[in-house]
Amino acid sequence: MMQLSNMSKSFGKQTILQDVSIDISANQITGLIGPSGTGKTTLIKCLMGMEKYDTGSIQIDDTAVPNRKLLNKIGYMAQSDSLYHDLTGLENIQFFAHMYGRKISNKAVQSTLNLVQLEQDKNKLVAHYSGGMKRRLSLAIALINQPEYLILDEPTVGIDPVLKLNIWDQLHDLKKESTLLITTHIMDEAMKCDQLLLMKNKGIAASGTPQEILENFGVSDIDQVFLKLEEIEYANASAD
Amino acid sequence: MRMLQLIKRICKQVLRDKRTLALLFLAPIFVITLLNYIFPDPDDEVTIAAVNVNDEVIDILEDNDIIVKQENEMDIQSYLEEGNASGVLEEKDGNWTLTILNDNPMDEGPAIQGSSQAVMETNLNDLSDNIDNMISNMEDMSAGVEEMMEQLPPEVAENMDINMDTNINTDIDSEIDMDNDPISVEYIYGDESNTFFEILNPILVSFFVFFFVFLIAGMSMLKERSSGTLEKLLSTPIRKSEIVFGYLFGYGIFAILQTAIIILYSVYILDMEIAGSISNMFIINIFLSFVALGLGLLLSTFVSSEFQMIQFIPLVIIPQIFFSGMLNVDTMETWLQWIAPIMPLYYAGNAMIDVVLKGFTFGEILAPLSILFLFIVVFVTLNILGMRRYRKV
């Protein structure tokens, strides 16, 4: 269980997140969606302990973040492909597997490679990978330690539609053992999540299952929710 | 062991990157070889053109291994610019003039030295000849007086109260010893065959170790950061100290190899003479390379591109050359003397000179080594603290 309560974060004078409180429920895919620049990545970095938050608290399994040992339970995929281009795909996976300190079997490495369909290309240098292949390799690395928590920052950018569907199926499989937090700004992907957190104006503007959110706002897709939120904001501003 | 895996990964990456390997191993060898041949050999002869110079001076010049070309009146400037000689020596009404272009201190220094020595020696010879003449004149004179006295009537001579010491000491050693050099030079360290390169080389060895290791460590850490792999690495439970030490030892292996190659090449191929032990040279440079690693990693956290990393070179690397033992720090401005002790190359360069030229033992270079070690400790600590920028625990 990941819990954020009254968490705030600012860089200098610029407040990025204000008074954010979220409960991320176990064995669900929670989608963190919102326009770019609303603090999705900052929130994730705070959750990982990479950024320090100013006030409030973050807890994962009743352990306060930041805590280095917690990282054993977390698989993380950054927005950019964080890969060593001068190593092969397999070497990248093996290197990061070793970083988790426990012995990760060759079988686990193989099945992860199969999952992202990179078995054929595992001995190629990453420098020769296509954008989609790099993305898949990053995903495989995030999965390598069979984490309880999987935090994926825009995992499906640059992946073709067939593979994207494939990966979403896998993610739904993964939630049997893991809790997933996924950021995205592709709205049709948001509909595939179990829970949604809509970010706007330094905080969470709406949350619930996709259906609940659509019903609450009386709209037919998530894009319109954001338009509605704009309207409400505009109305509030003119009322003041 | 996460650190070992990190070291393994770095080795793999360096070995695959042929350009980095070349930069590490071939570049220093290339530059050191170049320098070895660029600096002139002291045995090389200097040519001086002589105009209206008497044979005596020419003989002395030639005795001092200077090639003398006898020339007539000419346009000195164009003669020198055509490279016919390093200097032109002229005598006019007893005044000696040596004309040089003043654009090449390497050749012109010996030319000035050689000609002034020759002129001085002939002047001294003239002087001693004059003394000889004076003495023989006096002898003639006293002989004349004696003769005169003998011709005088004895009673006159007896009454003359002349107490003349006719025994002028003609044994005066008027022969000033001109066969030897007027000054004999004693060398405390090395001998007269020491070239500038031999003094420079120990410093250069250290400089290359420092420079290339600094650059490669800094660049690779920068790459790790800008490619996002550092962030990814920090999302695993690896300790920040494991990353810093992994980097230190991973690149340290190559730094040690590089040091070994540069030193062995200088000593066995370029015949650098070393008074002290080669192992002390290794120790100094291995310490220095770890300082360079620490500094490179540290500075890479303050830059955001390779270009900015290069901009640190004139700021961090170049000034260190001046303090590395090539120039005497004691005679510098006071504020510069304060700067010297914060430069790692100041300790390494001087320790290298002490070992290579003066034959210092391990015990005698313990002080600079401890300071280098202190630098390592400080840089490693700062690096680990600096990692907090990317992860808070």
Tell me which protein chains meet in the greatest interface and how many residues each side has: A-B, 31 and 23 residues
Oligomer: heterodimer
Overall outline of chain B: elongated
Helix count, DSSP H or I runs of 4 or more residues of chain B: 14
| Helix fraction of chain A by DSSP (H/I, runs of at least 4) | 25-40%
pLDDT < 50 stretches of chain B: none
- How many strands in all of chain A? 10
**Order of helical and strand elements of chain B:** HHEHEHEEHHHHHHHHHH
Can you identify the CATH class of chain A? Alpha Beta
Helix content of chain B: 55-70%
Note the main sheet of chain B: 4 strands, mixed
Overview of the molecule:
The complex is a heterodimer of chains A (240) and B (393). With 240 residues, chain A is α/β, with parallel strands linked by helices. Chain A has one domain: 3-Layer(aba) Sandwich (Rossmann fold). Chain A has 8 helices and 10 strands. Chain A has helices at residues 40-48, 89-99, 106-115, 131-143, 161-174, 187-190, 210-217, 222-239; strands at residues 2-11, 14-24, 29-33, 55-60, 63-64, 74-77, 149-153, 179-184, 195-200, 203-208. In chain A, the strands form 2 sheets. Chain A has a 6-stranded mixed β-sheet, sandwiched between helices. In chain A, strands 2-1-4-5 form a 4-stranded antiparallel β-sheet, covered by helices on one side. Chain A starts with a strand and ends with a helix. The model of chain A has no long low-confidence stretch (mean pLDDT 89). Chain B has 393 residues and is mainly alpha-helical. Chain B folds into 2 domains: 2-38 and 195-389, no CATH class; 46-132, D-Maltodextrin-Binding Protein, domain 2, CATH 3.40.190. Chain B is 65% helix and 6% strand. Chain B contains 14 helices and 4 strands. A 4-stranded mixed β-sheet of chain B has the order 2-1-3-4. In chain B, helix 3 (55-63) links the parallel strand 1 and strand 2 (66-71). Classes of the chains: A alpha/beta (240), B mainly alpha (393). The A-B interface holds A 48-52, 66-69, 71-72, 74, 76, 78, 80-87, 91, 95-96, 98-101, 141, 145 and B 2, 5, 9, 12-13, 16-17, 227-229, 231-239, 390-393. Chain A: InterPro entries: AAA+_ATPase, ABC_transporter-like_ATP-bd, ABC_transporter-like_CS, P-loop_NTPase. Chain A: It holds the Pfam family ABC_tran. Chain A: It comes from Oceanobacillus aidingensis. Chain A: GO terms for molecular function: ATP binding. Chain A: Keywords: ATP-binding, Nucleotide-binding. Chain B: Keywords: Cell membrane, Membrane, Transmembrane, Transmembrane helix, Transport.
